[in-house]
Amino acid sequence: AQSVSQHNHHVILSEAASLELGCNYSYGGTVNLFWYVQYPGQHLQLLLKYFSGDPLVKGIKGFEAEFIKSKFSFNLRKPSVQWSDTAEYFCAVTPFTGGFKTIFGAGTRLFVKA
Amino acid sequence: GAVVSQHPSWVICKSGTSVKIECRSLDFQATTMFWYRQFPKQSLMLMATSNEGSKATYEQGVEKDKFLINHASLTLSTLTVTSAHPEDSSFYICATTEGNGNEKLFFGSGTQLSVL
User: With an 8 Å Cβ cutoff, is B41 touching chain A?
Assistant: First the structure.
């Protein structure tokens, strides 16, 4: 079955530390890739997406993610986190078959210490 | 971006009762609505996909008679948990897209259901 795996459930960082959240998926066909973020008390919202083209995509608030097709990975990075980045981050994959059903990872809770 | 309003945000009910959750698209027409549920520390699991004016498509293992989905208009989709049991306690969230489904999702705020 198709799945999305996020490597860490909880991450605690100090401000200015670098962040990398791992995401791997198991699907061999064409996919759209997403990272969503949920800040405390807010809806899930899109952080960035990859559809095609340059595998290094940039999103809001200084986040970026790199699609490595050979590794089925789409890791999220930020060079220097801020306290306001405290949130839960979800990796998601939408395969191009099967009715465009988006599959989510379990999420990673990031806590940034001021 | 598109706004999806989901109500209620939290509901507590007795075992055996039914609970209805509503999702409304406020500024666009939602042809397709996805319903997810999330258990603590687990992924959002797709339960069903509803299309306006037609029957919902349920994922494997989801009981269609228990989780009734109605998508009668382009702005409203409802999920009714019938004869709720404690194991139905979960976080339910709706999501939709502006396009044909392969684009980004716009989420409701979610409903935390607790069945006593």
Answer: yes
List the one residue out of B35, B57, B38 whose CA is nearest residue B47.
B35
Q: Which pLDDT band holds residue B28 (cuts at 50, 70, 90)?
A: confident
Statement: residue A33 has pLDDT above 60: yes
Query: Which of these, A34, A42, A19, lies nearest to A105 by C-alpha position?
Result: A34
Q: Is the dihedral of CA A29, A32, A33, A38 positive or negative?
A: negative
Tell me if B21 sits within 8 A of B9, measured CB to CB: no
Whether the pLDDT of residue B97 is over 70: the answer is yes
What are the phi and psi torsion angles at B48 (to 5°)? -165, 160
Report chain A residues touching chain B, CB-CB < 8 A. 4, 9, 32, 34, 36, 43-46, 49, 90, 92, 94, 96, 99-107
